[in-house]
């Protein structure tokens, strides 16, 4: 019996992915994303909107979109956020439009968000890819947070306490990546490998955003 070969159009071609990068404050998410951007990785990196004050060395539109509380409220009323939350006394929101534009254009969208936000997006877009970035140890995380000198001792202790709670949210995620200082490239390679593996799944993820 002669077997017919499958036509190319019949193959299950992978669609664009929504990749959610999360983890404790100080785990290394920013460093990983910065390295991926500089390498020209083919994805749309979604910039979060926040009412937090800009820190030294941060750039508006690159690290975050820094806006006023009033403007944030207007965006909220206009249903412009995929997810939003108050964190450490400041508001953060993932703008919906650039995520939708990337996916509709066939491009992967990568966003960085805290664990609280990741849990919300898990409910809204369960077929997204969730990656949890962790430090090698809590001792290492303590050293990183205290060493960057961007928070008061009180805020630093609060972030460490929150990090301990967030480490218990591991089962919310699909993958875990350990981020070691001076070895950021290894974490980047791991994340890129995860995305490649997702592109070769027999059953691909169909991403649908809420209206």
What do you see in this structure?
The structure is a single chain. With 211 residues, the protein is an alpha/beta fold. The chain has one domain: P-loop containing nucleotide triphosphate hydrolases (Rossmann fold), CATH 3.40.50.300. It is 37% helix and 18% strand. It contains 7 helices and 9 strands; from the N terminus they run E-H-E-E-E-H-E-E-H-E-H-E-H-H-E-H. The protein has helices at residues 29-38, 69-77, 96-104, 115-124, 138-148, 153-166, 184-199; strands at residues 18-22, 44-46, 49-50, 65-66, 81-87, 90-95, 109-112, 129-134, 175-178. The strands form 2 sheets. Strands 2-7-1-8-9 form a 5-stranded parallel sheet, sandwiched between helices. Strands 4-3-6-5 form a 4-stranded mixed sheet. Helix 1 crosses helix 7 (184-199) and helix 5 runs antiparallel to helix 6 (153-166). The longest helix is centred in the last third of the chain and has 16 residues, at 184-199. The N and C termini lie far apart (50 Å).
Topology:
Layout: E1 18-22, H1 29-38, E2 44-46, E3 49-50, E4 65-66, H2 69-77, E5 81-87, E6 90-95, H3 96-104, E7 109-112, H4 115-124, E8 129-134, H5 138-148, H6 153-166, E9 175-178, H7 184-199
Parallel strand pairs: 1-7, 1-8, 2-7, 3-4, 8-9
Antiparallel strand pairs: 3-6, 5-6
Helix pairs in contact: 1-7, 5-6
